[in-house]
Design a protein that fits this description.
Elements (H helix, E strand, L loop, with lengths): L1 E10 L2 E7 L3 E5 L6 H12 L15 H5 L5 E8 L5 E4 L2 E3 L13 E8 L2 E12 L3 H4 L6 H11 L9 H16 L4 E7 L3 H11 L4 E5 L10 H4 L1 H10 L2 H33 L27 E2 L3 E2 L5 H17 L8 E6 L7 H15 L4 E7 L2 H4 L7 E7 L2 E6 L2 H11 L8 E5 L2 H13 L1 H6 L2 H7 L2 E5 L5 H9 L6 E6 L12 H8 L6 E4 L11 H8 L14 H7 L6 H10 L7 H7 L2 H19 L1
Parallel strand pairs: 3-14, 3-15, 10-13, 13-14, 17-18, 17-19, 19-20
Antiparallel strand pairs: 1-2, 1-4, 4-7, 5-6, 7-8, 8-9, 11-12, 15-16
Length: about 625
């Protein structure tokens, strides 16, 4: 299960607001706008206000208090939920068939809190409500369902199964009224079967891990900082582990209940006292297995606990744990959420980048979601604009905005983001084209001798800019490029033989008509991937290709997919331009007849650099 949306009602600075969620979510904004509250709200939601973040009466919005409102609510929509659900060995039901999904087909759970305590858990759904009985059907006990079945003479194949009886009752209302009448309703989960459904759903909920920015250096802060505690939760929620633990707990449960009954029987025999006594033993489903490892964590030299070390040291351990997760080959069986507040805190910029890279790698995996808050300009530049969520607080409370042109402009103004623009700007289509140019430049000595792109970039004299780049820094740079005096070298794919052939021709002609020394050209081959020789591709992907393929005009990713490469097109492009092209040498390009063209690109860039230095 993954989160697709979060809603707030009167939680802290949020009056009524919602946030669309993706696999990686980066919340930007000035201080005290509500960024941290989003992450902490999730902790309150998943752990009923008793987790790392304790819910209190002060979490209720102050304007709401003045209006006489006495509770706040947090709603979370999920996708990827299990359907159907096996309640027990003989009872299967479906969220869809029980009409427990919202209008968008998502599972939407709301938790309401009063005076810092969980007061109600509800499912918000688009539910049949022809009358009061049908509207509350899911909460009816099995006896009430049978009474209705008998009263109206309905036929049900198995009267032991509540789901089948509910279906028959809905069919009855649909025929009686001509249709089912739907309304958006909030249904409490304390109804008989709904409680069972909710207990099963909770087993599929993501493991939520919050790593908050350092506050006071207290023992309890280890809950917010120690990655071992997060990993323990993941392990104990694995289905295979739970099944084995439940076998053990059921054996213990049976023996302890038998002993309890014998004790009660002996009490009555000895005392002749008929006072009702029953054993109080938690069910196996309610056991908190991870608490067995309550004291798990890292100690450093001289047995100094982790939370007593410096904040920078603790953040490096967190970084190490996340990188270690990316190296593990095992597919995670449990959905996991990492929420990290200000990951730049107490970390050197070099380590900030490593941390972000690890988080992005995790978010690309099927079972992970990542939430971050930051107001560091350096951190913001790294992320793709689709991940950006801008948080702003005004007189009506805090709101979260998805990235668009206006929000991008606001980020530039309020967050102090300035573009990195060199004296010469090499403009390419996308990030993979940038990777290709850098890799062949650094690995083909003859090209590096013409101009060392990496050295010029480190000196700040040259910039390679993906014009269709998805990262925030690319978006910013492309918006301000026209207001600089930089010379521009534009290189775009010709897309020969495709439906998009020469789509950039007009843009290239405009660059060449400027008369300011800028220059543009289209590739002679179809795309940048076509410049990687066939034998290099074969070696890199471990495949053998047909010698008759028209390499210069092929859609290379499509060709590889048709030859059994089980990867997405974008991943193939990333591998070709980020890895395979490092093996290209001058003789490869000479044999392909592309050396003179590629050499010309770098000679043009070199001439521009020399012109700027005069």
């Amino acid at each position: 299960m993954k989160i697709s949306n979060i809603s707030f009602e009167n939680f802290r600075s949020f009056r009524k607001s919602e946030v669309n969620i993706t696999d990686i979510n980066v919340f930007l904004g000035k201080n005290d706008q509500g960024k941290s509250s989003i992450l902490e709200a999730l902790d309150v939601f998943f752990y009923d206000g008793k987790g790392s973040i304790k819910a209190t009466k002060d979490d209720l919005n102050k304007d709401a208090v003045r209006e006489g409102i006495n509770e706040f609510a947090i709603g979370v929509q999920f996708e990827g939920f299990p359907d159907p659900i096996i309640i027990d060995e003989t009872n299967e039901t479906s969220l869809k068939e029980e009409y427990l999904l919202n209008k968008d087909g998502k599972l939407e759970i709301w938790k309401r809190f009063r005076n810092g305590n969980l007061s109600s858990t509800q499912i918000k759904c688009y539910h049949p409500c022809n009358d009061e009985f049908l509207g509350g059907l899911i909460t009816k006990k099995i006896g009430e369902l049978r009474d209705f079945i008998d009263k109206h003479g309905l036929v049900v194949s198995d009267r032991r199964k509540a789901a089948e009886m509910r279906k028959a009752i809905r069919d009855y209302f649909s025929k009686r009224d001509g249709r089912l009448i739907f309304e958006e309703v909030y249904i409490p989960i304390d109804g008989t079967d709904l409680k069972k459904i909710w207990d099963k759903l909770k087993m599929h909920m993501p493991i939520f891990n919050l790593f908050a920015v350092d506050r006071e250096n207290l023992d309890k802060d280890s809950e917010l900082q120690d990655p071992l505690k997060s990993r323990i939760k993941e392990i104990f929620y694995r289905e295979d582990v739970l099944n084995r633990l439940n076998e053990v707990s059921e054996e213990i449960d049976n023996e302890i209940r038998a002993f309890a009954e014998n004790t009660i029987e002996m009490f009555r025999s000895l005392t002749k006292n008929e006072t009702e006594i029953t054993p109080s033993i938690p069910s196996t489903e309610d056991l908190k297995w991870d608490c067995v490892y309550k004291n798990i964590g890292f100690n450093t030299e001289d047995d100094i606990p982790m939370n007593k070390r410096g904040s920078g040291f603790r953040r490096l351990v967190l970084l190490s744990s996340l990188i270690a997760r990316t190296k593990e080959e095992v597919n995670n069986e449990v959905d996991v959420i990492y929420a990290i507040e200000e990951p730049e805190s107490s970390l050197h910029p070099k380590w900030q980048k490593r941390l972000v890279k690890a988080l992005i790698e995790l978010a690309e995996r099927e079972k992970y979601q990542v939430f971050l808050t930051t107001h560091s300009p350096n951190m913001m530049r790294i992320f793709e604009i689709e991940c950006i969520k801008y948080v702003e607080r005004d007189s009506e409370g805090s709101k979260v905005y998805d990235f668009n042109e206006d929000i991008g402009t606001k980020i530039i103004k309020t967050m102090g983001l300035l573009p990195d623009i060199g004296k010469v700007v090499v403009c390419v289509e996308g990030p993979t084209d940038k990777d290709f140019l850098l890799n062949i430049n650094q690995n083909i000595e003859e090209l590096k001798n013409i101009i060392d792109l990496k050295k010029e970039m480190e000196a700040g004299t040259l910039t390679i800019m993906p014009m269709n780049g998805s990262r925030l820094k690319d978006w910013i740079a492309s918006r301000v490029l026209e207001n600089t005096n930089a010379l521009e070298f534009h290189l775009y794919d010709s897309d020969k033989g495709s439906d998009n052939e020469n789509q950039y021709l007009e843009a290239i002609e405009k660059v060449n008509q400027r008369g300011d020394g800028s220059y543009g050209t289209l590739t002679e081959l179809r795309e940048i991937e076509n410049y990687v020789p066939k034998d290099v591709i074969e070696e890199c992907f471990g495949i053998e290709l047909d010698t008759s393929d028209d390499w210069t005009g092929e859609d290379i990713p499509e060709l590889l997919i048709s030859n059994g490469v089980n990867m997405e097109k974008k991943d193939i492009k990333n591998k070709i331009c980020g890895q395979c092209c490092k093996e290209i040498r001058k003789d490869h390009l000479t044999r392909m007849g592309t050396w003179n063209e590629i050499e010309g690109w770098f000679l043009n860039i070199k001439n521009m650099m020399e012109r700027c230095r005069r």
